[in-house]
Design a protein that fits this description.
Strand content: 35-45%
CATH class of the largest domain: Mainly Beta
Structural class: mainly beta
Shape: globular
Distance between the termini: 37 Å
CATH topology of the largest domain: Immunoglobulin-like
Largest sheet: 7 strands, mixed
CATH superfamily of the largest domain: Cupredoxins -  blue copper proteins
Amino acid sequence: MSIFLLLTLTLLNNGIILSLRPWISEHPTHNDAFGAKNNTAIENDNNYEELTYPPIIGNNNNTTNNKVVNITLSHNYINFSCEVFSIKNARVLNGSIPGPTIVVNAGDTLNIFYTNEMEEQKGIPIGALNTYRYMDETNLHFHGGHVSGDLPSDDIRMKIPPGSSFQYTTKFPSSHMPGTHWIHPHVHGSSALHVSNGAALALIVKDPPNYLPTVIEEANDILMLFQDFDLQRTQNIANEMGDTKFSYGPGSSSNFSKFKATLVNGQFKPYIKTMTNEWMRWRVIYAGHNTQPLNLKIMANNKKCKMILLSKDGIYIQDFPRPISIAPIPTGGRADLMVSCIKAGTYKVHVFDEDALTIQVSGISKSQTKDLPTWTPNYPSYLNNLLDRNATADCTCNTIFEECTSVKENDPFLGCVNDVPFSYKEYVHSIEIGKIIHRNINPDRHSYHQHVYPFQFIRYTQEYQPLIPQYVHEYFKVGDWHDVIQMWGLQGNVEIRFHPREHLGLLMIHCHRLTHEDRGMMSWEWLYDNGDGTCQCDERFGSNNIFSP
C-alpha cells in the first residue's frame, strides 16, 4: 500500500481549481500471461524468441463484480531496443512496450492514478490548433470501453502536463459485454507521436464464469498486441513539433536494421507453441496509428490451420462460428480469433504481407479438432439489434471525413469532419439520450472510430461493391458491431446505427490514422437529456469549454 499526493482537478464554469489530497493505492499485480500456459522465453533455432506477455494488473483473480480496482500508471521515457531497431526516449506506459495488461469485470470501478513523468522542454513554442504539438503532455483513452466520455473518465480533451498526476475513475456498467480493448494516450496534437512510440496497453473485460461454450472457455487464451513502427515517420512528426528527445537507430542484430517493422507484445517475429487439434483463442489488438488494415493471415496450405472469427472490437459476433481467411482489422481495431492446426509443422503468420509471427505445431493427430458450436451471446441493451428498427426522426446525419476544402496546393494537411476542422468549442451533432441514431459515414481512406458507444453496420448506400475484396466482406457483415471500421475500395457510404441509453456528455469521433486526427480530422457529438426529444445535425453550437487552448 502506498500513499501519493493526488492532483485533483475541480471543474468549474470559469476555470480549474487544483488541489492536493492524499490517495491510497492498493494495486495488485499478476505476472502471468493472460490465460497463456507458458510465459518462458526460449531461444529458437532462428534466434527469435517465444512470445511473452505483459504483466497483468487489476481484477484478474477476482470474479466478483462491482469491485473497486486501484492501479497506478505512468507515462515516461525509456530507451528501447529490439533486434531491428532502437529508440532513444520512447514515450511509453509504465516503462515498457507495450504496457501492462489491465483486467476488469463488468460492474467494476477502475481507478487509475496516472502520472506524467515526462519533462517539459522549455523554449519550444506550442504550435497552432490542429498541428503537431504537446509532445510531453498526456492523458488516457479507454479505446472500446462503453464508459463515460466525461471526466473523471474518458475525456480526451484534457491534457496532463509534465510532473502532474490525475485520478481517473471509470465505471464499467454491469451490462458491459466482456471483450478485448486497449488504452492509449490521446492528446490532440501528440496522439500519433505517442502511439507510434509504443504507448499502448491491453484492457480486458473478463468473461463471467460459464458464459462461453466449454471449448472456447478451455482454449489457450493468447494476447497478441500488434504495433506498427515507422520510425522515420515518427521522427518527422517529432521534428515538426520541435521535439529534442526522440531519436532512433540500429537494433541489437548485427545483420540488419529495419526501421519500419511490426512488433507483437514488444517482440520481433516471436513464435508460439501449440499441439495439433488444439484450439487457441487469439486476442488480437491492432494498436495502430497508420492507415493500412492489419490483414492478418495464417500461411498454411491445404487448410492445415483454421481461423474462426469470435468477436470484433470486444463484441461477440451473432453468427459464430464464422470462418475467415484474412482478418482485415482496421487500425485501432481488435479481433478475437479461434485458431487450430490439424498437422504438425511451422506456419508463418503474415500482417501487412510480411512475417510477424510463427506457429510451431507439434504432436501427432490422434483425434479431430473439437467442433465449435453455434453460439450467440445475450446482448446488453446498448447492443440491441437495430437492423429492423427505424432511426428516430431528425436523428439521421452525415459524418464525412475528408481533407478540408479550404486547403490549397502546397498548404499543410488539414483534416475535417463535414468540412470543419476540430474545435474544442464546437460539436458536430447533438443527440437526445434514448433515441436511435443513424449516421452515414465514408470509411474508405479514413478509418472511422467512435468513442463511448459502439455502432452497428446497417448497409452500404451502394449495394454493389466490386472494389471491396471478398475477405473484407467475410469480415465486415451487415449486423456486426464495431467501434472502428474501414473498407478500402468502398464506393458510396456506409450506414450505421447506435442507441445511446446511459452515458451523457461527450462522444468523440475521428479518423484513427492519428496523423489525420492530430491535424483536425476529429469532432464530438453531444449527448443530453432535456426531454425535448430532438437531435440536431451540423449544429456547431459554441461551448464554454475549459480545455480550449
